Amino acid sequence: MALLEAVAPERDAPPDPTLEQARQLNARLERWRTYDVLDEMIHGEFAGRIALVSSFGAESVVLLHLAASVDPSVPVIFIDTGKMFGSTLRYREELQERLGLTDIRVARPDPALLLTRDPDASLWLRQPDECCTIRKVAPLARALSGFDAWISGRKRFQGGSRAALPLFEADGDRVKINPLADWSKDDIQSYRRLHDLPEHPLVADGFRSIGCMPCTTRVADDEDERDGRWRGAEKTECGIHLGLAEFEGDGSGI
Ligand code: SF4
């Protein structure tokens, strides 16, 4: 009897509130039109507490156009790693003007960290994971401070870890929304043509997924579009979708 009393009964772990919120949102909104999902997120569920994160890459214009149609003042975070194509920076300016986006926020790497960890700017060649952490993940974690939700442009057809993408997911204490999760490549192209939206200039040159200049290559017709990213390496993701929590605050998680 004494032994039994000494062993505390096992209790179920309390449910993660963000996971539960994502689960409920998936159940409530999974059949809604993409525009309506964005409207509900930007003006309802997360009003004033949500940002869209965009690379202004090959397909970004579709989500940016949808979000701008809902509310052109929605905060849009762009991570300028210092390694972007010049054409991406010019495309960002073009879309800002064309779509009337009024709150584009540029997140940049910490200059002090660059000085100590990547003084000759060649870290991408030796340690791409660390380079992405310093140049992408940590700046985004800082830029999302104060937001309770963020919108990403990932799609299931991009394959890999994205193949089973839900509409809503938990990202630490934030909800992450993937409004285009179930869009096909054809859906994206049809929407872009229907609204006469400009294409990233590098697409016509054979680039179908566009990130930093040193880590992006052209893609052949028989390749998946993300095969051009970190070509020849096992790396397939920069890390911003692998969890931001440890990089928030003063950057000591780096
Ligand atoms: S994509 Fe390449 S250059 Fe850009 S942050 Fe990652 S490793 Fe560095």
Describe the structure.
The chain starts with a helix and ends in a 60-residue tail after the last helix. 34% of the residues are buried. The radius of gyration is 20 Å and the shape is globular. The protein is an alpha/beta fold. 36% of the residues lie in helices and 9% in strands. It has helices at 2-6, 17-29, 34-45, 60-70, 86-99, 111-117, 123-126, 128-143, 185-194; strands at residues 50-53, 76-79, 104-107, 149-151, 168-171, 174-177. It contains nine helices and six strands, in the order αααβαβαβαααβββα. Strands 3-2-1-4-6-5 form a six-stranded mixed β-sheet. It has one domain (16-205): HUPs (Rossmann fold, 3-Layer(aba) Sandwich). The model is unreliable at 1-6 (pLDDT under 50). Strand 1, helix 4 and strand 2 (76-79) form a beta-alpha-beta unit. Helix 3 packs across helix 4 (60-70). Iron/sulfur cluster binds at residues 81, 83, 124, 128, 131-132, 135-136, 211-212, 214-215, 238.
